[in-house]
Known about the structure:
Layout: E1 4-8, H1 12-26, E2 33-37, H2 86-90, H3 100-114, E3 120-121, E4 124-132, E5 137-144, E6 149-155, E7 157-160, E8 182-185, E9 199-203, H4 207-218, E10 223-227, E11 241-244, E12 247-251, E13 254-257, E14 262-264, E15 267-270, E16 298-299, E17 303-304, E18 310-312, H5 322-336, H6 345-360, H7 365-380, H8 390-406, H9 440-444
Parallel strand pairs: 1-2, 1-7, 2-3, 7-18, 8-15, 9-10, 9-15, 10-11
Antiparallel strand pairs: 4-5, 5-6, 12-13, 13-14, 16-17
Amino acid sequence: xxxxxxxxxxxxxxxxxxxxxxxxxxxxxxxxxxxxxxxxxxxxxxxxxxxxxxxxxxxxxxxxxxxxxxxxxxxxxxxxxxxxxxxxxxxxxxxxxxxxxxxxxxxxxxxxxxxxxxxxxxxxxxxxxxxxxxxxxxxxxxxxxxxxxxxxxxxxxxxxxxxxxxxxxxxxxxxxxxxxxxxxxxxxxxxxxxxxxxxxxxxxxxxxxxxxxxxxxxxxxxxxxxxxxxxxxxxxxxxxxxxxxxxxxxxxxxxxxxxxxxxxxxxxxxxxxxxxxxxxxxxxxxxxxxxxxxxxxxxxxxxxxxxxxxxxxxxxxxxxxxxxxxxxxxxxxxxxxxxxxxxxxxxxxxxxxxxxxxxxxxxxxxxxxxxxxxxxxxxxxxxxxxxxxxxxxxxxxxxxxxxxxxxxxxxxxxxxxxxxxxxxxxxxxxxxxxxxxxxxxxxxxxxxxxxx
Length: 452
């Protein structure tokens, strides 16, 4: 009897492992019995934009954190699928920093090319994941949101691919309950135009703070103040943007910071990160980790060492995204199909500890890029994912970091060469700061060479 495999989530990670299984099928392998449960009514995960915040149309917590006018904040050449390139999908070279709709179209293009949609059950939320020790199987309780009916099924293997950017981390600041303006977490941020003409306070100092702050600046905020806890981002911000130490308290609209300065603000966006929160998973199976490049308890960043029948995808802090998710997906597939034999638990835990010790030695973002490149190289040598130049990809990440240091507003105006196809991307026809229309049609409408 074939193994029964459940995949939780049909975002880039879930779609990646479905693609990996489909590749094996096309090569003649006999596959397990696979079903993928997706909470939303369509595939794409976080890239499936919704205007909703808080609670969705089914009464569930909104999964997505995607906002209008989001453009890739890293070169597309660093996230390209090695088995389905941008050139293949769009039929021509496109600029290096696409807006959300373009990347979503690319993700779905590969999914449609894979013929995997029949394996996905939509509007289905996993309520509980447990393990029956006596029978050696997982018990997965799933509710069909359309029918409001639940059922519990047995699976031999489970892949958790639902991501970790949907449960906000929301700190408290004295006086915030009496703040008279808008307060939201980045998870609920949808449209920067809401803050046109306003003084915006961003709490946080990572990628979402950087990008949402720039979004507000781009779409007409009067000022943007970014409050950091431990270290400023340190970019050369425009005149109406500045960084200050941690917010200590609020007195009406007056924000008080750790250095003794104050600022009158109209709205607050908490860019304070997300929790690895999986309340539907029983305690003995649940991943508990801080946001790091090598999560706790996951051998090769994928296999739950305490029970190797359970696998997690995409749980890392990320420089690499789609290509790393694919490498993990191919590895998970091969573990499930018995192509890769796992060592004893003690060896797995020793390997995890060694990788985490190496991560802890890193001093800056360039060390982190090297670390994640090495992690991807480690997976790549174990699976049959198409070869691509990981060292060059790592160098592109470093070049991108340098570009941001040089000009945080205009770094997206640069062009990069694909480590997979060798294609040099064109420079976008409009500087990012002036490109207020983020539609795919406008983005792809590149002027012909030599056109006036």
